[in-house]
Protein backbone atom coordinates (compact mmCIF):
# COMPACT_ATOMS: atom_id res chain seq x y z
CA UNK A 1 0.00 0.00 0.00
CA UNK A 2 1.18 3.50 -0.88
CA UNK A 3 0.03 6.81 0.60
CA UNK A 4 0.04 9.76 -1.79
CA UNK A 5 -0.85 13.42 -1.27
CA UNK A 6 -1.92 15.67 -4.14
CA UNK A 7 -2.22 19.45 -4.33
CA UNK A 8 -5.07 21.59 -5.65
CA UNK A 9 -6.97 19.94 -8.52
CA UNK A 10 -9.59 22.65 -9.18
CA UNK A 11 -11.55 20.67 -11.69
CA UNK A 12 -8.57 19.54 -13.79
CA UNK A 13 -9.82 15.97 -14.11
CA UNK A 14 -7.68 14.95 -17.10
CA UNK A 15 -4.48 16.03 -15.36
CA UNK A 16 -5.54 14.13 -12.25
CA UNK A 17 -6.04 10.94 -14.24
CA UNK A 18 -2.66 11.32 -15.94
CA UNK A 19 -1.02 11.78 -12.54
CA UNK A 20 -2.80 8.67 -11.24
CA UNK A 21 -1.41 6.71 -14.18
CA UNK A 22 2.09 8.01 -13.53
CA UNK A 23 2.08 7.05 -9.84
CA UNK A 24 0.12 3.85 -10.56
CA UNK A 25 -2.49 4.77 -7.97
CA UNK A 26 -4.93 1.96 -7.26
CA UNK A 27 -7.77 2.85 -4.85
CA UNK A 28 -8.18 -0.81 -3.94
CA UNK A 29 -4.81 -0.81 -2.21
CA UNK A 30 -3.48 2.74 -1.96
CA UNK A 31 -4.47 5.78 0.10
CA UNK A 32 -4.81 9.33 -1.18
CA UNK A 33 -4.69 12.66 0.66
CA UNK A 34 -6.14 15.70 -1.11
CA UNK A 35 -5.18 19.20 0.02
CA UNK A 36 -8.48 20.85 -0.94
CA UNK A 37 -9.79 22.99 -3.79
CA UNK A 38 -11.08 19.98 -5.65
CA UNK A 39 -13.35 22.14 -7.82
CA UNK A 40 -13.97 25.54 -9.42
CA UNK A 41 -12.37 27.29 -12.41
CA UNK A 42 -11.19 24.05 -14.02
CA UNK A 43 -13.19 22.46 -16.87
CA UNK A 44 -14.32 19.19 -15.25
CA UNK A 45 -15.23 19.89 -11.65
CA UNK A 46 -18.23 17.57 -11.77
CA UNK A 47 -16.12 14.71 -13.10
CA UNK A 48 -13.56 15.26 -10.32
CA UNK A 49 -16.22 15.14 -7.61
CA UNK A 50 -17.99 12.12 -9.07
CA UNK A 51 -14.74 10.17 -9.35
CA UNK A 52 -13.57 11.02 -5.84
CA UNK A 53 -16.99 10.18 -4.45
CA UNK A 54 -16.71 6.72 -5.96
CA UNK A 55 -13.34 6.10 -4.30
CA UNK A 56 -14.19 7.89 -1.05
CA UNK A 57 -13.16 4.95 1.12
CA UNK A 58 -9.58 5.37 -0.12
CA UNK A 59 -9.14 9.12 0.37
CA UNK A 60 -8.72 11.82 2.98
CA UNK A 61 -9.87 15.32 2.04
CA UNK A 62 -9.51 18.73 3.65
CA UNK A 63 -11.78 21.48 2.41
CA UNK A 64 -10.42 24.45 0.50
CA UNK A 65 -11.92 27.87 -0.08
CA UNK A 66 -13.22 26.84 -3.52
CA UNK A 67 -14.92 23.77 -2.08
CA UNK A 68 -16.67 25.99 0.47
CA UNK A 69 -17.67 28.34 -2.34
CA UNK A 70 -19.37 25.44 -4.10
CA UNK A 71 -21.28 24.53 -0.94
CA UNK A 72 -22.28 28.17 -0.47
CA UNK A 73 -23.43 28.38 -4.10
CA UNK A 74 -25.59 25.30 -3.57
CA UNK A 75 -27.29 27.13 -0.70
CA UNK A 76 -27.68 30.34 -2.72
CA UNK A 77 -25.18 32.25 -0.57
CA UNK A 78 -22.63 32.73 -3.36
CA UNK A 79 -23.12 33.10 -7.10
CA UNK A 80 -22.44 30.09 -9.26
CA UNK A 81 -20.22 30.15 -12.35
CA UNK A 82 -19.94 28.06 -15.52
CA UNK A 83 -17.38 25.66 -14.00
CA UNK A 84 -19.56 24.63 -11.04
CA UNK A 85 -22.94 24.99 -12.78
CA UNK A 86 -22.77 21.33 -13.93
CA UNK A 87 -22.43 20.21 -10.31
CA UNK A 88 -25.40 22.27 -9.17
CA UNK A 89 -27.46 21.08 -12.14
CA UNK A 90 -26.58 17.43 -11.57
CA UNK A 91 -29.28 15.12 -10.19
CA UNK A 92 -26.60 14.12 -7.67
CA UNK A 93 -25.98 17.69 -6.48
CA UNK A 94 -27.34 17.18 -2.97
CA UNK A 95 -25.52 13.89 -2.57
CA UNK A 96 -22.19 15.39 -3.64
CA UNK A 97 -22.57 18.59 -1.62
CA UNK A 98 -23.61 16.70 1.51
CA UNK A 99 -20.56 14.49 1.05
CA UNK A 100 -18.33 17.57 0.81
CA UNK A 101 -19.93 18.98 3.94
CA UNK A 102 -18.77 15.86 5.75
CA UNK A 103 -15.09 16.47 4.97
CA UNK A 104 -12.44 17.87 7.30
CA UNK A 105 -10.62 21.16 7.74
CA UNK A 106 -7.64 19.36 9.26
CA UNK A 107 -6.38 15.81 8.88
CA UNK A 108 -3.71 14.31 11.14
CA UNK A 109 -1.73 11.09 11.03
CA UNK A 110 0.72 10.63 13.88
CA UNK A 111 2.06 7.38 12.48
CA UNK A 112 3.07 9.00 9.19
CA UNK A 113 4.09 12.22 10.94
CA UNK A 114 1.94 14.55 8.82
CA UNK A 115 -1.04 16.82 9.19
CA UNK A 116 -2.89 18.50 6.31
CA UNK A 117 -4.89 21.72 6.01
CA UNK A 118 -5.69 23.54 2.80
CA UNK A 119 -3.91 26.82 3.59
CA UNK A 120 -1.90 25.70 6.62
CA UNK A 121 -2.24 26.17 10.37
CA UNK A 122 -2.57 29.58 12.02
CA UNK A 123 0.53 30.86 13.84
CA UNK A 124 -1.81 31.26 16.84
CA UNK A 125 -2.62 27.54 17.05
CA UNK A 126 -0.63 24.70 18.50
CA UNK A 127 -1.60 21.26 17.27
CA UNK A 128 -4.12 20.61 20.03
CA UNK A 129 -5.84 23.94 19.36
CA UNK A 130 -5.85 23.29 15.61
CA UNK A 131 -7.47 19.88 16.08
CA UNK A 132 -10.10 21.28 18.45
CA UNK A 133 -10.93 24.30 16.34
CA UNK A 134 -11.08 22.27 13.14
CA UNK A 135 -13.53 19.90 14.77
CA UNK A 136 -15.61 22.85 15.97
CA UNK A 137 -16.22 24.20 12.46
CA UNK A 138 -16.57 20.71 10.96
CA UNK A 139 -19.48 20.03 13.30
CA UNK A 140 -21.15 23.29 12.31
CA UNK A 141 -20.74 22.63 8.59
CA UNK A 142 -22.26 19.18 9.05
CA UNK A 143 -25.16 20.40 11.19
CA UNK A 144 -28.76 21.02 10.04
CA UNK A 145 -28.00 24.76 10.49
CA UNK A 146 -25.10 24.68 8.02
CA UNK A 147 -26.74 27.12 5.60
CA UNK A 148 -27.25 29.79 8.25
CA UNK A 149 -23.77 29.22 9.64
CA UNK A 150 -22.13 29.50 6.22
CA UNK A 151 -24.00 32.73 5.53
CA UNK A 152 -22.32 34.22 8.61
CA UNK A 153 -18.91 32.78 7.71
CA UNK A 154 -19.05 34.27 4.20
CA UNK A 155 -19.48 37.80 5.53
CA UNK A 156 -15.70 38.07 5.33
CA UNK A 157 -12.46 36.85 6.81
CA UNK A 158 -11.37 37.73 10.33
CA UNK A 159 -7.68 38.63 10.48
CA UNK A 160 -7.01 38.41 14.21
CA UNK A 161 -7.59 35.54 16.63
CA UNK A 162 -9.47 36.56 19.78
CA UNK A 163 -10.70 33.92 22.21
CA UNK A 164 -13.15 36.47 23.65
CA UNK A 165 -14.71 37.44 20.32
CA UNK A 166 -18.26 36.54 19.36
CA UNK A 167 -18.58 32.84 18.47
CA UNK A 168 -19.36 33.64 14.82
CA UNK A 169 -16.21 35.79 14.56
CA UNK A 170 -14.09 33.03 16.08
CA UNK A 171 -15.57 30.64 13.50
CA UNK A 172 -14.79 33.09 10.70
CA UNK A 173 -11.18 33.28 11.85
CA UNK A 174 -10.88 29.51 12.08
CA UNK A 175 -12.28 28.96 8.58
CA UNK A 176 -10.24 31.84 7.13
CA UNK A 177 -6.99 30.53 8.58
CA UNK A 178 -7.53 26.95 7.43
CA UNK A 179 -8.68 27.86 3.91
CA UNK A 180 -7.47 31.35 2.89
CA UNK A 181 -4.28 32.20 4.80
CA UNK A 182 -1.02 33.10 3.06
CA UNK A 183 0.66 36.03 4.79
CA UNK A 184 0.75 37.41 8.30
CA UNK A 185 2.19 40.38 10.15
CA UNK A 186 4.55 40.32 13.12
CA UNK A 187 1.61 40.41 15.52
CA UNK A 188 0.10 37.37 13.71
CA UNK A 189 -2.67 39.34 12.01
CA UNK A 190 -3.51 37.60 8.75
CA UNK A 191 -3.50 39.33 5.38
CA UNK A 192 -5.98 38.04 2.79
CA UNK A 193 -5.09 40.45 -0.04
CA UNK A 194 -1.60 39.40 -1.07
CA UNK A 195 -1.59 36.35 -3.35
CA UNK A 196 1.83 36.55 -4.97
CA UNK A 197 5.03 34.74 -4.07
CA UNK A 198 7.04 35.91 -1.07
CA UNK A 199 9.45 38.74 -1.82
CA UNK A 200 11.94 40.87 0.09
CA UNK A 201 9.74 43.89 -0.67
CA UNK A 202 6.78 42.29 1.09
CA UNK A 203 8.94 41.26 4.02
CA UNK A 204 10.16 44.87 4.30
CA UNK A 205 6.50 45.88 4.70
CA UNK A 206 6.15 43.45 7.57
CA UNK A 207 4.40 40.71 5.58
CA UNK A 208 5.79 37.20 5.86
CA UNK A 209 4.45 33.80 4.86
CA UNK A 210 2.44 32.44 7.76
CA UNK A 211 5.06 29.75 8.36
CA UNK A 212 7.79 32.37 8.82
CA UNK A 213 5.88 34.36 11.44
CA UNK A 214 7.79 35.05 14.62
CA UNK A 215 6.77 33.04 17.66
CA UNK A 216 4.56 30.75 15.60
CA UNK A 217 3.32 27.99 17.87
CA UNK A 218 5.03 24.64 17.43
CA UNK A 219 3.29 21.94 15.40
CA UNK A 220 4.69 18.49 16.10
CA UNK A 221 3.69 17.09 12.70
CA UNK A 222 4.92 18.12 9.27
CA UNK A 223 2.27 20.40 7.72
CA UNK A 224 1.09 19.55 4.24
CA UNK A 225 -0.87 22.30 2.46
CA UNK A 226 -1.94 23.69 -0.91
CA UNK A 227 -3.74 26.94 -1.76
CA UNK A 228 -0.68 28.98 -2.74
CA UNK A 229 0.09 28.39 -6.42
CA UNK A 230 2.49 31.35 -6.65
CA UNK A 231 4.55 29.87 -3.82
CA UNK A 232 4.70 26.61 -5.75
CA UNK A 233 6.35 23.45 -4.50
CA UNK A 234 8.10 24.04 -1.22
CA UNK A 235 9.53 21.66 1.33
CA UNK A 236 11.54 21.97 4.49
CA UNK A 237 11.75 20.07 7.75
CA UNK A 238 8.35 21.31 8.88
CA UNK A 239 6.35 21.96 5.70
CA UNK A 240 5.30 20.47 2.39
CA UNK A 241 3.46 22.77 -0.06
CA UNK A 242 1.85 21.01 -3.04
CA UNK A 243 -0.14 23.60 -5.01
CA UNK A 244 1.95 23.89 -8.17
CA UNK A 245 -0.58 25.73 -10.32
CA UNK A 246 -2.13 22.99 -12.44
CA UNK A 247 -5.08 25.26 -13.21
CA UNK A 248 -2.75 27.98 -14.48
CA UNK A 249 -0.69 25.75 -16.77
CA UNK A 250 1.79 24.66 -14.12
CA UNK A 251 1.96 21.15 -12.76
CA UNK A 252 -0.11 18.77 -10.67
CA UNK A 253 2.04 17.34 -7.91
CA UNK A 254 1.87 14.17 -5.85
CA UNK A 255 4.07 13.31 -2.88
CA UNK A 256 4.42 9.82 -1.49
CA UNK A 257 4.19 10.05 2.29
CA UNK A 258 4.79 6.49 3.48
CA UNK A 259 8.55 6.59 3.11
CA UNK A 260 11.22 6.53 5.78
CA UNK A 261 13.15 9.04 3.69
CA UNK A 262 12.12 12.28 1.99
CA UNK A 263 8.76 12.14 0.16
CA UNK A 264 8.97 10.96 -3.41
CA UNK A 265 7.67 13.76 -5.66
CA UNK A 266 5.90 13.05 -8.96
CA UNK A 267 4.49 15.71 -11.27
CA UNK A 268 2.64 16.02 -14.57
CA UNK A 269 2.62 19.06 -16.82
CA UNK A 270 -0.80 20.71 -17.14
CA UNK A 271 -2.23 22.53 -20.15
CA UNK A 272 -3.88 25.16 -17.96
CA UNK A 273 -7.57 26.02 -17.92
CA UNK A 274 -7.12 29.71 -17.11
CA UNK A 275 -4.54 32.47 -17.29
CA UNK A 276 -3.83 34.81 -14.37
CA UNK A 277 -6.23 37.73 -14.54
CA UNK A 278 -9.04 35.71 -16.10
CA UNK A 279 -10.51 34.57 -12.81
CA UNK A 280 -12.78 37.60 -12.42
Short description:
The protein is of the alpha/beta class.
Task: Give the helix proportion (percent range).
Answer: 25-40%
Number of domains: 1
The first-level CATH class is given as: Alpha Beta
Overall outline: globular
What share of the residues does DSSP label as strand, in percent? 15-25%
Name of the CATH superfamily: Metallo-dependent phosphatases
Look up the CATH topology.
Purple Acid Phosphatase, chain A, domain 2
Order of helices and strands: EHEHEHHHEEHHHEEHEEEEEE
How does this model look, in words?
The strands form 3 sheets. A 5-stranded mixed β-sheet has the order 3-2-1-12-13, covered by helices on one side. A 5-stranded mixed β-sheet has the order 4-5-9-11-10, with no helix packed on it. A 3-stranded antiparallel β-sheet has the order 7-6-8, with no helix packed on it. Helices cover about 30% and strands about 15% of the residues. The model has no long low-confidence stretch (mean pLDDT about 95). The chain is globular, with a radius of gyration of 18 Å. It has helices at about 15-25, 45-55, 65-75, 85-90, 95-100, 125-140, 145-155, 165-180, 200-205, and strands spanning about 5, 30-35, 60, 105-110, 115, 185, 190, 210, 220-225, 235, 240, 250-255, 265-270. It has about 280 residues and is of the alpha/beta class. The chain has a single domain, classed as Metallo-dependent phosphatases (Purple Acid Phosphatase, chain A, domain 2, 4-Layer Sandwich), CATH 3.60.21. A hairpin with a 7-residue loop joins strand 12 (about 250-255) and strand 13 (about 265-270). It has 9 helices and 13 strands. Helix 3 (about 65-75) packs across helix 5 and helix 6 packs across helix 8 (about 165-180).
Amino acid sequence: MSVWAIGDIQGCYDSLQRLFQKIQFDPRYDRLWLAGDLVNRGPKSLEVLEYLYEIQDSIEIVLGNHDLTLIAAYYGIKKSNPTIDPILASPRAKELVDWLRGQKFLHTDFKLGYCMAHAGISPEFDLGMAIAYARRVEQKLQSPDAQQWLRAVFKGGVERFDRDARPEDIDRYIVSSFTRMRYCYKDHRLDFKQKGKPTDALRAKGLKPWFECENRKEIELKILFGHWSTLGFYEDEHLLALDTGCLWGGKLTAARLDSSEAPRIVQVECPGAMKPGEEG
